[in-house]
Amino acid sequence: MLCGPSGCGKTTLLRHLKRELTPVGTGSGTLKYQGQLLAELSPERAAGEIGMVFQNPDAQIVMDTVWHELAFSMENMGYPPSVMRSRLAEISGLFGLEPLLYKSVHELSGGQKQLLNLASVLLLQPKLLLLDEPTSQLDPVAAREFIGILQRLNEEMSMTIVISEHRLEEVLPLADRVLLLEDGALKAEGSPREMVRRIGKELSSSHLAYLPTAARLFLRLSPEAEYAELNSLPLTVREGKQWLQKRRLLETDAKGMAVAGSVANTGLSTDAEVLLNCREVTFRYEQDGPEVLKKLSLLLFRGELLTIMGGNGAGKSTLLHVISGLAKPQRGKAELAKGVSAGYLAQNPLLYFSQDTVLEELQHMAHYAGMTEAESQHEIAELTAIFQLQDLWGSHPQDISGGQQQKVALAMVLLLKPDILLLDEPTKGLDPGAKENLASLLLHLRSQGASIIIVTHDVEFAARHASRCAMLFDGGITAEGTPESFFSANYFYTTAVNRMVRDWLPQALTIEDVN
Amino acid sequence: MNKGFRSMHPAVALLYYAGLLLFAALLFHPVFLLTEMIGVLSLLLMQRQGRHLLRALPFYLLMAGSVAVMNPLFSHRGANILFYLLDQPITLEAVLYGVMMMLVLLTIFIVFRSYNYTVTTDKFMYLFAAAAPRTALLSLMAIRFVPLFQRRLRQITLIQSTRGINVNSGKLRKRMKDGMTLLKVLLTWSLEEALQSADSMKARGYGIRKRSTYGIYKLDRQDIWILIVLAVSGLCTLLGWLQGYAMLEIYPRMKPAVFSWGEAAMFASFCLFVLTPLGLEGKEKWLWRSSRRSGYPSVTPMKAGIRSMSFRSR
């Protein structure tokens, strides 16, 4: 497993391992596959035995139906039809793809698309599988399923897998070896438990983010961590809980753990100004389509950070469309208070760009917002400083990284000076460092009086930064409350820390809550 | 839903429709044309396509009807003059010729309607791929982009409208400029993604050797039999045409239509050709109906041993 911040060279390294995709540039050193130079491998072996799955589930798909996409790689290798048929049957059975076989690709969910991409590569029976952040665009359920399949491939077929991931909670415990990359160099290497110990002992605290929660809790609670036995280091929630239990037995007095002061969030304050009032909103996309939102009611107060969670297709994005006025509900109303405007940031920041440079994008937006030249210069300079975009002014919006694209799009939305900010999955695909940056940005905006609604799957992010959480299910808000009450009432849909310590501290959500 | 004639191998369907088109163009005889039209029409009706056909019918009738009206107005050939319109002679032969042209056009329209329903894009591509694999692959990928771009453009339009770029308001010049901007966004995005698609193709060994094709269609025994029946009956009809049968001579003077034995034989083989898919469709219908009557969800013939089970399950 490879980990490290965005831009540290994970993708470049993986691409070097796949001969067809080796980036253009000057290189030195040698790469050997089974004792043979990678460059000297026959094209069939290079394509077949080394398989690669990329980050974006959509862009990898070439054909329009599932069976055709699966057959594509085998057709390339020129297999006879009987071989293709039996391999297809085998892989469909393994992945449960039969019901999807004749479907059109665009009907699939992101998770299904990524499974299809994996299956299509596996049909060539590779010996080495390279995965470049395969789950970064997936929701947690789909990601877990995908990782589960990887685990099976690894354990049952003993397939070698090299994966780069930000979703460490699930992947790290499965890894045999973890490589930490930084600035294109190998920073540390070892088994997951060795890495926990090394990060706890010598590396800086920014690396802590690359460890699973259980390990971080361990490092935080036991100062003697570096002397602990390697096998006793917890990696998963189960191990974490066992370790906590043992620890409690040792400490006869229970004062070892306590909730460390209530979180800074103030939660619901009824006297705050109401900015948004959704009253019994009902929405459907087509006349005889299903109701996506069913009599949904929601209030938003000034200065709040509301996270809305819910499964795939629960209507979260639709709700944001309705609030921002991009979609008109058939019944009910989404009323903004007088003089209040909403700005909407979609999941895909690419949708926002239409000019040639970042600066032009910002200027165009400022112009649309009706600012004078002097005003817009001032505003843009201010936002650039907050978002650290100075270096990007001259670059094309398509050429910068995903996290940067998101920042630019957010800055563009902010030029409209919205009182309510609507963000659709802003943490998707971000590395831990970028997430922290985003969080501090949002905090800054809240301190200036903006309210924020975030639609997200990211439980940890919501627990840490939200002032209120809500659950969208079956077209309506089914539960809402402060993060503490919201998550402690949930059994599955809660943070890893909460799952570990809920027997003793039902209110604790983050590592900082446990002392 | 694939059943009956539609579930057959694409080659069968292609042969059938190619034959139908050929005969509609070659055979100039009302009996043959009417037979073909009614045959295909009933096939469509049996496939429950009547409603779709009805929607398109006014257009077909308008097109074909105008040909029937236009012909006598512009063509004055023929011996029997019916009357004079604005000093122009309207001849019986020209009227009849116009009606025949109408029949031909209507037949071709209906054949295409049926073709569109039966031979879907992927079936055509499957056949096409056998002839030109690379071109077929390319066209398949291109065809996929049409709905994909539509969906993307819808998204882009929605989001860009939040920054004042939309084609629904403002002056014409601004609208056109905004429209171009939207297309530019779509293009940049799609090209960017196409790079990744190309990587994914290369990573899966595209172009390292000659491609084989995977087909989901299997030529079974019924397909082969039907192919043979269609080919033989089609060839017989074609032979008849070479003999000069089934050609109604209208200009300069309509000849009385004599239905010789040879022509009758040709008509029989033509009927066989046109009506075979109809028979298949009907057979399937009948099987399901009869199986419903007997209380079986399948076409398994009743056997003494099974009957008791069926009673129990009721």
UniProtKB/TrEMBL annotation, chain B:
The keyword Lipid biosynthesis does not apply. It comes from the Bacteria. Keywords: Membrane, Transmembrane, Transmembrane helix. It is found in: Membrane. Its main location: membrane. The chain crosses the membrane at residues 12-33, 53-74, 94-112, 124-146, 224-246, 258-280. InterPro entries: ABC/ECF_trnsptr_transmembrane. It is a multi-pass membrane protein. GO terms for cellular component: plasma membrane. Coiled coil: none annotated. PANTHER family: PROTEIN ABCI12, CHLOROPLASTIC. This is Energy-coupling factor transporter transmembrane protein EcfT. It comes from Paenibacillus monticola. The lineage of its organism: Bacteria, Bacillati, Bacillota, Bacilli, Bacillales.
